[in-house]
Hints:
homodimer; mainly alpha; globular
Amino acid sequence: MKNSIFEPVEKELVLVENGIKAIADVEYTWLAELLDYIVNSGGKRVRPTLTLLAGKINSRFNLDSLIPVATGVELLHTASLVHDDTIDLSMRRRGKPTAASIWGWGIATLAGDYLFSKAAEFVSQANSVRADRLFAQTLMALCTGELEESFSSFDENQTRERYFRKIGNKTASLFSMATESAGIVNEAPEQEIKALRAYGYNLGMAFQVVDDIFDFTADEDKLGKPVASDLLQGNLTLPAIMLKERYPEDNPIKAIFENRGKEKSLDLAIEMIRNSGIITDCYKVAQSFTSEACKTIKTFPDKPSRKALLEIAGYVVERQK
Amino acid sequence: MKNSIFEPVEKELVLVENGIKAIADVEYTWLAELLDYIVNSGGKRVRPTLTLLAGKINSRFNLDSLIPVATGVELLHTASLVHDDTIDLSMRRRGKPTAASIWGWGIATLAGDYLFSKAAEFVSQANSVRADRLFAQTLMALCTGELEESFSSFDENQTRERYFRKIGNKTASLFSMATESAGIVNEAPEQEIKALRAYGYNLGMAFQVVDDIFDFTADEDKLGKPVASDLLQGNLTLPAIMLKERYPEDNPIKAIFENRGKEKSLDLAIEMIRNSGIITDCYKVAQSFTSEACKTIKTFPDKPSRKALLEIAGYVVERQK
């Protein structure tokens, strides 16, 4: 991401980073090592940046509450990644071995739980019951989205509507919490809180749609996993759903799900998606979400923080895997 | 447990039960089925009973806040059991197959996360940031205790001090939250909150010590797992620690941990613990905790709720597996 995105909240991000690092300052050396490994495993800190920018765009600005909430948002994200990796038996993330692959999935599960509690504790430092409740509801949405993915895998009837609901839960909920919570702890007018929530939600939707595009367009090296791994795992994302919509009678998804000539059918699906204009249409969907995101924050005053939020929206659809 | 323990809060417990059951009222039938199975898997609802009794013993009584907090406490307990069973690969709990054994550990992990979020949401309904923070810290303590158990397994240097710290985290923390939170949401004087916290903590310590005694004294049928399974899993509980203390040079623990003649050594350890007065000494430790628990609530007025809390303390050491 461009530096101009982080610039308006550079100082505050250092405080968030310090808070995250301090988590590993615990009495037990074995726990310190485990936590240190997890919280310093990279990551661009997009979500706390959103919280801080949303906090600065607001008509009120309460730094003492924004820092712990931004830290809590990032830790909630980290904790959910630890559990995702554990559940999916993923061996690597961001080029490094996952906690589960080093410590085993039992300890990784507990470490994820520990980070959930740390995230909740940070959010509670903002002294806002409403923010605490939003935290709980966000965790609930994340779990619902992941559970929905588990339960619907290899189900051919995954529709566009169900897809949007699923990514709304598993991805957009955390983005919308990131921005909405800033409005809440700033005690901003309800209208501002609503706008920030809508910005985050739409940004998150676009983010996930683009990630799901990458799964078909990037190569294995950049993905760090096989191309079309979603499809292989039985999850229909937007490109695959569009493939089904375009060729309802003649698409290879049924064969992939039924494991018939899997490799050949998978290659065919990738080729059909890449060469059919589906990718362009998916990008249009992502762009309609980011347009909506940008629209919601137009009423805020023209500050560097608003400019950065608009830039992030551009980045989300323009980024390369 | 005797009915007289539940009597002072009978009506309130119905409300808690309704709240727990309502969790399964979700749009997705697959999720409803999963949640329904987990939250209706038995359990004596000891912890919410403690919250309600502690709420009624207080000089103030705020029912609207106590019910959601008591519900949250029970759900936190349920969620942590789901994760414990998942991590330990347990097939049965309370005579029924575990969620992990039916739905697989990935979905069970997510279901546990979902219940953590539900628990947090219930607690947040009490509109007390302090209660929210206590919730987060309790989850943190539970994880720390479980992680400590994982990291110290098959380590011969597990001392009495480390044992008390571990069970303080993994068990007593939730009991102390159950009673302390009642004081918090009632906005009771600090001294009362402190007394309730101490009651819950000491009761929880006694509860775990007695559970650890059962692991050596009960038979396999009643335990639902092999006798001395803690020792088999490399965890030294109070009876085993006392065995080490009494016979520092001549005890079979080293052999069990090193897997030398495991079965014979295990039988020897069980026999030595059963026939050495160690069990009596362990019960003395449990009783000293319950005495301390009872002492802390002596200053409260003589109400049925106080009587019930004193009875619970008696029950904890007198119960049979």
